[in-house]
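Form P-L/3: holo structure prediction, ligand flavin-adenine dinucleotide.
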Amino acid sequence: MNRFDFIAPHNISEAVAAAAEPGSAYLAAGTNLLDLMKIGVSRPVRLIDITRLPGLDRIEWQPDGGVRIGAMVRNSDLAYDPRFARTFPAVAEALLSGASAQLRNAATIGGNLMQRTRCAYFQDTASACNRRVPGSGCDALHGENRLHAVVGWSEHCIATHPSDFCVPLAALDAVVELEGPQGKREIPLEDFHRLPGETPEQETALAPAELIVALRLPAEAARFAANARYLKLRERTSYAFAVVSAAAALEINDGVISHARLALGAIAAKPWRAREAEASLAGAEPTLEAFTRAAGFALADARPSGDNAFKIELARRIAVRALILAAEGTPEVMPALPASPFSTTPGASHVA
Amino acid sequence: MSLDAPSTNARYGSNAGQPLTRRDGVLKVTGRATYAADNHPDGMLYAVTAVSRIARGRVTSLDVEATKAHPGVVEVMTPASRPPLAHDPDEKMPPFGFRIEVLQDSTVRYANQPIALVIAETLEAATEGAALLNPQYDADEPRTGIDDGLRFDPPAVGVGGPPKAAFGDVEAGLAKAAQVLERDYVTPAQYHNAMEPHAVVAEWDGDHVMLDMPNQALAMSCASYATYFGIPPENVTIRSPFLGGGFGSKAIINGPQILAILAARALKRPVKLVLSRAQMYGPVGHRGGTWQKLRIGLNNDGQLTALHHKSISATSSFDDFLEPAANASTHLYASPALLSEHEGIRLDTGTPGPMRAPGEASGSAALEVAIDEAADACGMDPLDFRLHNYAETEPGSGRPFSSKALRECYAEGAKRFGWAGRPLASRQMRDKNGFLVGWGMGTALFPCPHFPAEARATLRADGTALVETAGADMGQGAWTALAQIAAEALGLDPEQVELHSGISTLPDGGIAGGSGHTASAGLALNNAGKDAIAQLSELATNDPASPLFGAGNIGVEARAGRLYRRDDETRSESYAEILARAGRREIVGTAKASRDPAAAEAHAMFSHGAVFAEVKVDPDLGQIRVTRLVGAFAAGRIINPRLVESQYFGGMIWGVSFALHEEAIIDHRTGRIMNADLAEYHVPINADIPSLEAILIPENDPFVNAIGVKGVGEIGITGTVGAIANAIWHATGVRVRKFPVRLEDIIG
Ligand SMILES: Cc1cc2nc3c(=O)[nH]c(=O)nc-3n(C[C@H](O)[C@H](O)[C@H](O)COP(=O)(O)OP(=O)(O)OC[C@H]3O[C@@H](n4cnc5c(N)ncnc54)[C@H](O)[C@@H]3O)c2cc1C
Ligand code: SF4
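OUTPUT (holo model):
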């Protein structure tokens, strides 16, 4: 790890001012940033500690029923907030399916949005990686890319965004509030992460020194509370990143879907909102046929970026399954194995 | 199990056989047990290795100046500056030592090989110093795949084992078979991920060196280090009170530690080196990959007519450790003809080494799936098929087994699991949630090696005892089980016995490997205890003032701190009284123990077991969960059922890991391992192991050694891997012959 300055600002404007110096990085819980610093992928010259900034650790309910979540709220605190979990159950389920209990207790909302790809070549400084070193090439393209992207990728980068949390957020029209040298602005979560195109190093819409201060979920997203699931396929029962995942949310009236939301995770450099699929479900009955058709729309443009054609089929299937589970209804209590296909296994009582 | 439940295995009316809790348990759960890296002698420096990012070629330059300029960096050791060693690192170190990479030249033989050592005042400075070296390479094409490596006929496999075993005429057996099954299996390279990484704190005092390091073979390691540093073995002291897991990798000398010890000598200050997790994927041994082929001849009665098991086992380009995988077939099933053989393949990786059940694990994985396939081909239940091919005596030699309660393991395991009624065909069972359910089984087998060991038992004036042997507690509970054995020999309660171990200045406790530590060090302690009691009896029976006077011929018995006349319970005396009257402060018993060669010659010695697995598989998504594992094992006399159960659990969990998770993912273009961290190199987590049961089958073995102890540390992996793969087939109809089993294998 290189030598760096450590700055503890007292308020947001101090933080933003400090971050304006080139080579700065915001430090939240550090569960991603410090790992990357230890392996030499990130080498900031100054760390700006935002963990002590006042006012960023609150969950605030809006008069209209929407919610505003401070960037420093811990993943666990949000997932276990009773009103939040009741109102946005798929988001809580996604949070609880991520990482481990220890990591969730530390990791922040802002950090989760900003976490970097898990592409092994991104993490290996001896590999060519356009995302890490623009123009250097992409060693994943013809390398070990079994888990890489199947939609939205380019020859320049085939990485995926690993967040679970962001998948239902994209489905539910979450909005990110930012504050930077230019002042405040907000941006839909769906536009927050970028597809690689020719500039994979531009991972998000965040401008230099901009700070995520909060995240909002609109009141209308609460209409899905009774029929919302997040489902995540993993290579072990817990504590693993998704191979593919899906957030499905339905509003069903008199046996007909009035509104549907679907987003897929771990298949692209951003959470993949499937608007065509959603449209195909509006007005349909919640049947396997309808769900299968919708999943087909969701992956219509998918193509393998390498040794990962199986992910396309898996993504299709997990979309169908998530829709089926959503139609069956949000579970009364959080499943013991959140987001797991095995969450229905009786007997277990802990969150793994 | 209840803590104070009397064991059916207890002999001599002793404490052994009781499920005592670990003596060091409280120290460990309160953080007071100190591991090697917890040592911080005054003036200590930190060493960090810089490692190669190519797998084959040469380092052409290192920016030593940049590193030295970094604040806190004290020294940089490179091939140009590395002080000499007294032993050529390109020569093997007998008996088990490998060639090691200690900056002897600029050659790179594998990715993650040390190419320099940076020593600094802080860990951070050393780490950054290593990063600043900015190595330049002249890289050659790496050979890390099955198609790239040089093949060769190995003179030996494992640690000096025979590369080939044969009896009968395999080709004739196959020719006359009603059907022949020919199958290929692949097991990946797996890397050591003990919770405690390799570490050393080295401190020199003149030409004596003190090494705090986790170590599974204290005496052997002292001798090896002494040879490297040109000093007498007694000048090397290794302290290894606790190991955070060994699994075979801490029994072998590795390059990084040698470099740190060299640095400590050169700089005349203590030096600490702790490998990072990623650095474990190279210089400290791993389970080499295998490509195995099995050919099985079957007659119309479902019996083997021939068994041919060949393993192509990977090793490094510069040294030999080949997974003796095919040997897993040589002692298990009855067959009139057998050929097990190995071919080596040289890859640009670190040299593999022993890793929990080396050979047995990979070989059993292939064999047990093949046997399942054979049972299916014969239309037989897998358990019936195994019973049908049960080896009553050692296949080939016809020697009797010293003991073999495998039938009981099959029966008891099947009963507890509920095996009866299992449908023969695959894809027959579903649970209420619609998951596919499958049941599979495998036989477990592990040999019973015995290492020479020494011990000392001192009976003290107060009637308590101190027993000593330089053994290793890697978490398995040796401190507890060994004390129980000693206490039994001494006729004392375990609380009256103080055990000193884990430091090389004590009598040689042998090697903690091959599942042979309890037997080896235990036998030495037993014999030392008996020696002390014999001396005490001698004192008492020759002393006219003792109630035991004259009992020399009849004999006395040691029990609860007293000697009793064998034919007259009313005549007894406490140890303390005997010692006091004789004016002795203590009596010291000693022993050098090894296995009786005649018994070993006459018998085949193995632990056995049967593992039953239930898996559930999501029919659409392919996700697999091992919902139940039941293992029944027979391993001679059980000294401490609590600890043994835990060993079986650990082994079976590793079986899950082998079957479903572990794999080093190598980019063959560069030879680098792309998942050298615990986020991506998966091992099971708690949620992967919902239900685990280990059954301890009683077994009396009068031949294996005087204490009747076999080994339990490794056998749990064997059998389990196959059982899981077979259960997956039973659930899904998909026969996966490449480990670990992946989602895409299941969904097709
Ligand atoms: C072993 C392991 C397993 C994991 N498994 C999962 C998983 O299954 N699913 C999943 O979703 N995640 C997983 N994670 C990732 C985890 O969710 C993230 O590491 C965590 O959310 C990051 O939050 P943090 O507060 O620690 O961020 P930090 O590490 O502190 O920061 C991460 C990045 O975000 C930037 N940043 C942080 N806060 C802000 C802000 N307010 N404004 C602007 N920039 C900011 C930092 O500068 C940095 O670049 C795993 C992580 C690990 C280590
Ligand atoms: S896929 Fe993207 S992150 Fe991975 S190596 Fe290629 S450019 Fe880098």
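COMMENT: The CA atoms of residues 58 and 212 of chain A lie 14 Å apart.
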